[in-house]
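Recap from last week: sequence in, structure out.
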Amino acid sequence: MKIIVCMKQVPDTNEVRINNETGTLIRDGVPSIINPDDKNALEEALRIKDKHEDVHITVLTMGPPQAKNALKEALAMGADEAVLLTDRAFAGSDTWATSTIISSALRKIGDYDIIFCGRQAIDGDTAQVGPEIAEFLDLPQITYVSNLEIDEEKNMVTANRAIEDGYYVVESKMPVLLTAIKELNEPRYMSTWGIFQNAANAEIKELTVADLDVDLTQIGLKGSPTNVYKTFVPTRKFEGEILEGNNTEEKARQFLVRMKERHIL
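Predicted structure tokens:
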């Protein structure tokens, strides 16, 4: 079985700050991590490898040369092969352009049974790239996967697709694209063997725009139909008020008075 996991290296949002003058992210000194949902996707691929024979896992990411660090971490966790899509022509790509590039790379790789993506990236929160890749490749897709079973004999997957108040059980023939959520599993740590043998010695294959069959007008900043107009941190317009009182009833009366003063009630 051939599995490809699409990952993204993202800034750790716990450390991100915004330049109030320019409205851009301050990336200096901000650590980069594998997007959390993508780690769940990788972990599920690794669990399939643990249960089934002859499973080969390729991890793929698009980004600058530093994104190799995310691929090396994935290799140290147990992936078999890594591919980096890197080219200045890719810079500034929105979800449409990114999906165009990644789907072209997946066509080039060609042989796959399952494509895993994370539900969404924490630096964009769009949840669009996985489904768009499936559309470009004309693949069935199951999003928001919270549980997964594989039937190799029938060449089928059965997944629980999470919804707000429960889940759907969805079956699909392979090849199929699946997007993972955090409820699917708990990602493992890198192993010592994986760090010193697999990741340290692995050769990461690089693909540039010259290696792909893409329309240059559909990628990069100029080929992106959407762009970020402004980024800012919300500011408080007023401070909250703590109501004093000897009991709940007295505080409730004060609350009603404040609501009437503001013409809310």
